[in-house]
């Protein structure tokens, strides 16, 4: 690769990274707006103050933190040339992502079993806010799972190696962002009731 091609590749890689960061910043603004509305709505007389988050949300937080760790270790394994370990860690990350989704739905089921509904005439403003916050996060998680599947596919096609890590770097950055966003939401919902 000559200097011109190297400079073009560097510009191309930098542009992709910037686009990802613009997307992440817009998502941060979305969640900032939603959580601000939640804080303002807490002053309403019909706000539920005795409402507790189900334990499934705590367990899902632990699972998503572990998924970030496995993704990070997979990236390190690729850098050191340990493809077999990287494959196991990427598949493990996917399994943890699916477990996270299952725990989220379990949490919703627990909330409904306690008699709190998210929509309809029996819903409250509190549970509707939780529903919107978690569903918006789940949409981003779905994008993260699709990204993870693309990373796994490209890994098995042997497209990542030292010096060619852009795809996995972008995927890992987005995945860690989705994880951090859930941690933020969980802590926010836990402490701001």
What does this structure look like?
It is built from five helices and no strands. It has a single domain (3-44, 54-192), classed as Four Helix Bundle (Hemerythrin (Met), subunit A) (Up-down Bundle), CATH 1.20.120. The longest helix has 39 residues, at 3-41. It is 79% helix and 0% strand. Helix 1 runs parallel beside helix 5 (166-191), helix 2 runs antiparallel to helix 3 (83-113) and helix 3 packs antiparallel against helix 4. It is mainly α and 193 residues long. This is Cytochrome c oxidase subunit 3. Residues 1-193 form the Heme-copper oxidase subunit III family profile domain. Keywords: Cell membrane, Membrane, Transmembrane, Transmembrane helix. GO terms for molecular function: cytochrome-c oxidase activity. It is a multi-pass membrane protein.
Chain-wise SSE layout:
Elements: H1 3-41, H2 55-79, H3 83-113, H4 125-156, H5 166-191
Helix pairs in contact: 1-4, 1-5, 2-3, 2-5, 3-4, 4-5
Under CATH, the topology is which? Four Helix Bundle (Hemerythrin (Met), subunit A)
Overall tally of domains: 1
Structural class call reads mainly alpha
Low-confidence stretches: none
Q: Characterize the main sheet.
A: none
Name of the CATH homologous superfamily: Cytochrome c oxidase, subunit III, four-helix bundle
Query: Residue-averaged pLDDT, rounded?
Result: 89
**What order do the helices and strands follow?**
HHHHH
Rg value: 20 Å
Span of the ends, CA to CA:
57 Å
The count of β-strands is 0
Helix content: over 70%
* Percentage beta strand: under 5%
Any guess at the CATH architecture?
Answer: Up-down Bundle
């Amino acid at each position: 690769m000559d200097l011109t091609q190297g400079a073009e590749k560097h510009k191309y890689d930098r542009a992709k990274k910037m686009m990802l960061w613009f997307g992440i910043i817009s998502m941060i603004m979305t969640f900032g707006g939603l959580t601000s509305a939640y804080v303002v709505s807490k002053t309403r007389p019909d706000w539920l103050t005795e409402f507790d988050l189900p334990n499934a949300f705590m367990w899902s937080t632990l699972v998503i933190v572990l998924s970030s760790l496995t993704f990070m270790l997979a990236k390190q394994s690729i850098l050191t040339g340990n493809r077999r370990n990287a494959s196991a860690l990427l598949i493990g990350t996917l399994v943890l992502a699916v477990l996270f989704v299952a725990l989220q739905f379990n949490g919703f089921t627990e909330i409904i079993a306690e008699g709190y509904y998210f929509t309809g005439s029996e819903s409250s403003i509190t549970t509707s806010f939780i529903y919107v916050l978690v569903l918006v996060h789940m949409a981003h998680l779905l994008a993260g799972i699709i990204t993870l599947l693309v990373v796994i596919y490209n890994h098995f096609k042997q497209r990542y190696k030292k010096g060619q890590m852009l795809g996995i770097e972008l995927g890992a950055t987005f995945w860690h962002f989705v994880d951090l966003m859930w941690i933020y939401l969980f802590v926010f919902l836990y402490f701001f009731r």
